[in-house]
Amino acid sequence: MNITATGGAVAEAPQDTAHGHAQGPLYKLVVGAIGIVYGDIGTSPIYAFRETFAGHHTLIPDRLHIYGVLSLIFWSMMIIVTLKYVTIIMRADNKGEGGSLALLALINRTLSGKKKWTSGVILLGVFATALFYGDSMITPAISVLSAVEGLTTVNAGLGPFVVPIAIGILVGLFAIQARGTARVGLLFGPVMVFYFIVLAVLGVMHIMNYPAVITAMFNPMNAVHFFTTDFMRAFVAMGSVVLAVTGAEALYADMGHFGRKPIRISWIYFVLPALLLNYMGQGAMILSADTATALAKVKDPFFYLAPDNLRLPLVLLATAATIIASQAVISGAFSVTQQAIQLGFVPRLRITHTSESAAGQIYIPIINWALMTMVILLVLTFRSSSNLAAAYGIAVTGAMLIDSVLISVVLRQMWNWNRFVVAGLLALFFAVDFTYLSANLLKIPAGGWFPLLVGAIAFTLLTTWAKGRQLMISRMNEASLPMEIFIKSAAPSAARVPGTAVFMTSSASGVPHALLHNLKHNKVLHERVILLTVRIEDVPYVAEEKRLETKDYGSGFYRVLLRYGFMEEVDVPAALAQLKEIGAQCRMMDTSFFLARQTLLASSRPGMAIWREKLFAWMLRNAESAMEFFKLPTNRVVELGSQVEI
Q1: 26-447: what fold?
Q2: String of DSSP letters for 375-410
Q3: What is the reported pTM?
Q4: Where are the alpha helices (DSSP H) in 84-181?
Q5: How confident is residue 11, by pLDDT bands cut at 50, 70 and 90?
Q6: Contact predicate 538/13, CB 8 Å
Q7: Cα(576)–Cα(583) distance, rounded to whole angstroms?
Q8: CA pair distance 230, 341, nearest whole angstrom
């Protein structure tokens, strides 16, 4: 399996220092990063501490357990978020872009000659992407539902309205995606900055009543004491403690929007302190209350941090923060899908750009409505954020473990770090990741099966499409005729007509099937024939000077290789207008585009199981037209059908 658009490996993709980071003063980038990157992890205090004590596996809210949980939260944030993601993984950027697919492309490009690494690493990276889709369904559901549930702390009689209100908010959120979020997005940063300030202030208000929680959180011996005193409960609690670091992978995935520096600054100097103060505040509030009050408040400690008269405003602010977090996850699903399409793991889908100035703001209808359907079903099925918490975490911990595997390849095979340093770091990361994943496996019967099921389905679709395309291109190339032979034998006898014919082909060698079919049925060739291959490279952006590569066969035949990065939008007519090595400029009114539409025939030939071949054929039939994807003029396209047996 490979991840180039043409099905062939590239020894070294063209390099380009350009990237798509937002430009502007550092403080603006920091505020923007706070608004987009930290929505998921920033809304964790709403439910993470509560689930640890009042979830499906309750803990007694006494000093032993609260001190132990606070210590686990702090050291998890330091090891997983600060050390693993912010300090190390964010260094592994692919020309400024981050995320599992960008890292996968980077590793594939660098280690393309080491087959023992690439095949297994690619499968792991694809599985991490598949798990992301399960996570992107649960995150909006649990975030919005947990915030709206805060209404019950204002008025217990509002309980029956929680689910309908949450569904209304979610439906509205998905409904506005087609219109874009550029204007609303301007508010994301300031709202989240205010939200984190409120988190910190609420925490400090209660820490003043029980300052001992400060040293308790920073002392790792409290976590050790928790495990040595009550091992089984401590182990089970890890399944809820991990909710405090969900969203850590977003720091890496969103690096392409803001760059490494703004994300690091906002985490270390603003977001991390605010989160720690809030968690300490929740612990201090419970410890400073009498037993009856503590048992009541531990069921929703986040909202009880606020005085009675400010609780409703806190609910509204938390709801706004969860909407922003959900928006970031939805936008992330669009971005990951676009990358997967470009890298050859997902069929072509209809992509709409919602902003003329920001190329990264896109909308994919089928992904939007599929996510909305699943999110609504989750809310209606689980009906509370506590029930959803049982399904949350396993996809995140699985992705974190895969990230550790991928970064281990980077540290040794690409960066050549000292083996003892690498061994120490990996031992720490794998120990933490395995512990969290093991604890979350206990959630499978209570709902953890859902993200695993979604991940398994997504993984099957992604790998089936990638393998199927590889097989299809291979079968087509088997009967391919060398271009030089075709020009000498068939071209001289064919009548030539005015104009330019562009034959889109996935292979950069041989005669395209569409050209053979056109000559067979129409008995003519155009004066100028261009064989065009679009290749998506393993870098996010390709420099303009490396965009086009041409070859002149003579007799009016040209081969053109058009390169794009996996974060770029393909525009064939615009690229052809820049061609200067093929004579007169291509004018769309004199140009015809010929596309081959394959009909697949499942067979018993080795390669894929019959059921996967049929699945691939179904995906191919439902893929977006190449005409739309490549932005070809609709009145200048001719499609020629052919049958391919795989």
Answers
A1: Amino acid/polyamine transporter I (1.20.1740)
A2: HHHHHHHH-SHHHHHTTSSHHHHHHHHHHHHHHHHI
A3: 0.85
A4: 100-110, 115-148, 151-154, 162-175
A5: very low
A6: yes
A7: 12
A8: 48
Angle between helices 115-148 and 365-382 (to 10 degrees): 60
Chain centre distance of CA 365: 16
Q: What is the mean pLDDT of the chain?
A: 85
Q: Check pLDDT > 90 for residue 81.
A: yes
pLDDT band at 16 (very low <50, low <70, confident <90, very high): very low
Inform me whether the pLDDT recorded for 474 exceeds 90: no
**Identity of residue 256:** G
Token pair listed for 603 = 């067979």
50 CB-contact burial (10 Å; exposed 0-12 / middle 13-18 / buried 19+): buried
- Which residue, 490, 496, 634, is CA-closest to 573? 634
Cβ-Cβ contacts under 8 Å for 370 (sequence gap 6 or more):
none
CA atoms within 13 A on the CB side of 375: 31
Burial class (CB in 10 A: 0-12, 13-18, 19+), 561: middle
Higher pLDDT, 446 or 602: 446
CA distance 230 to 430: 23
Question: Is residue 359 within 8 Å of 209, Cβ to Cβ?
Answer: no
Q: Report the pLDDT value the prediction gives residue 15, as an integer from 0 to 100.
A: 35
The residue type of 319 is: T
Q: Determine the Cα–Cα distance for residues 527 and 494; give it in Å rounded to an integer.
A: 11
254 close to 176: Cβ distance less than 8 angstroms: no
433-457 pLDDT per residue, tens: 999 999 999 888 888 899 899 999 9
Span of 50-64, 177-191, 395-409, 544-558 with lowest mean pLDDT: 177-191
Residue 256 or 75, more confident: 75
Q: Where are the domains of the chain?
A: 26-447, 474-645
CA-to-CA distance for 272 and 199, rounded, in angstroms? 11
Q: How far apart are CA 568 and CA 354, in angstroms?
A: 15
Strand, coil or helix: what is 501? strand
